Structure formats: structure tokens, C-alpha cells
Amino acid sequence: MRTSDYTSAMINELQRTLELLSEESVEQLVERIARAQKVFVAGAGRSGLMMRAFAMRLMHMGFAVYVVGETVTPGLGPDDLLIIGSGSGETKSLAVMAAKAKGIGASLAAATTNPESTIGQISDVVIQVLASPKEASDQESFTIQPMGSLFEQSLLLVFDSIILRMMDRQELDGSAMFGRHANLE
């Protein structure tokens, strides 16, 4: 196959996956973000990178947003929201974090392939991303991509579409957000 054939296949997988998203779940997350005093994001590996990208865009919009694990991240409180990106919903460190957030009284949202997972079951909002988890065998998988690539790519697009939704609600455009862009580069 040529590179363009792989790209076309990946785009088709992404379109199929994203068309199956629950608009209701996405809107619930948008509402939780809007009401939160502070927003925290977490994820492991490549999913964590997608969560960081989402945090950056929320910051550009003016939200108080933090990446869990960074040295400048404050404590989580009951008026806050923790959003976890985890394909399996079973990553041990993230499951412990989710349980702790619920114990504090914060809201919890998850983006996962498995809403019945440990993290999914205790979340207030679950966005199910119908992508094969990285642990899927070749027979269980419906993607040509390795491991969790389809999930991770879908996370980026889901969260970017949430940013667009929120920009529309707040009547913001990219130029309004640029004022919060890093300027020490």
C-alpha cells in the first residue's frame, strides 16, 4: 500500500469512530467544563499527550486548567472537574486518581473505549470512543493501526471539536484566543 492509502484508511476509521459519539455525552462534558472552578486533565502515554493538547486549548480559552502530575498543579476541590483519557479505563494510576477525585467530591469525566471499566463506572460523564483498545487482538480490532492509535487520534479530534463547540457558545474566535498563546518561545 502507498502512504496515501494508509492515510485514507485512517481517515475513514476516524470518521466512522467519531460519527458514533454520543452528542448528549459531549454536551454534558461541555456543561461540566463551563461550571467547573478548575479543570484537571490526566492520561497515560499517548492518551496523556492528547489530554495535554486539550488542556492547552482550554487555557487559550481562559479556563483555569491543569495537567495532573505537573509541579505547578494545585489541589483538586469539590467545585473542580477531572477529565481522564484512558482507552481501557483500567490504567491503575488513573483509576486510583479517579477514586480520589470522587472522594474529594469533584466531578469526574472519562473518555474511554469501555464505559463499564473501573474509571467509567465512577465517572459522572463518559464519552465512549468506539475504537479498539490497544490490548485488542488482530481478530477483535477494527483498525489497521497499531495498539491505541485510533483511540488517541479520536481523543484529539473529540476534544478539538469540544473546543470549537465551546468557542461557538462563548462567541470566541482564534484571534481572541491568541492573546493567551505562549510568547517566550
From TrEMBL:
Supply one GO BP term: carbohydrate derivative metabolic process
Record Gene3D superfamilies: Glucose-6-phosphate isomerase like protein, domain 1
| Superkingdom | Bacteria
- InterPro entries recorded: PHI/rmpB (IPR017552), SIS_dom (IPR001347), SIS_dom_sf (IPR046348)
Keywords, ordered alphabetically: Isomerase
Which Pfam families does the record associate with it? SIS
Q: Which GO terms describe its molecular function?
A: carbohydrate derivative binding; isomerase activity
Which residue ranges does the record assign to the SIS domain?
Answer: 29-172
Q: Which family does it belong to?
A: Belongs to the SIS family. PHI subfamily.
Query: What's the protein called, per UniProt?
Result: 6-phospho-3-hexuloisomerase
Species whose genome carries this gene = Paenibacillus rigui
Tell me the name of the encoding gene: hxlB
